[in-house]
Amino acid sequence: MKLERRQVKLNEIEAVHEILKQCGQDMKMRLGLGHWDPPYPLDLLRKAAQERRVYIVRSSEQIVATFTLGIEAPAYYRTIPGLWMLGIPWGNRQCM
User: Fold this and answer.
1) What is the mean pLDDT of the chain?
2) Structure pTM?
């Protein structure tokens, strides 16, 4: 299988959101992990695609995965309890 990666285009955001939705539901059902269900909000995903480095992975013209790269945490992460509140350097490598 040949995989290709590139930055997401704005007209692909809904397809990326659907991947997040399906993966979140699968992780919740199979593993009991509910942190991606409901999925990342569509409006925030659109904003991230414009302001950050959101990528897709394609196989045979079909989007099969997404990931985001960044060197700083998004501002809203400061409102969520976790290690990023401890001053630990941020490295954003989210992948679904």
Assistant:
1) 81
2) 0.72
More confident residue, 72 or 88: 72
Largest CA distance in the chain: 42
| Peptide bond before residue 39 is cis, with ω within 30 degrees of 0 | no
Q: Cα–Cα distance between 35 and 14 in angstroms, integer?
A: 20
Placement of tokens 């501002």 in the chain: 75
Type and span of the H or E element at 40? none
> What percent of the chain is modeled with pLDDT above 90?
42
Q: Find the DSSP H helices in the chain.
A: 13-31, 42-51
Do residues 74 and 54 touch, judged by C-beta distance below 8 A?
no
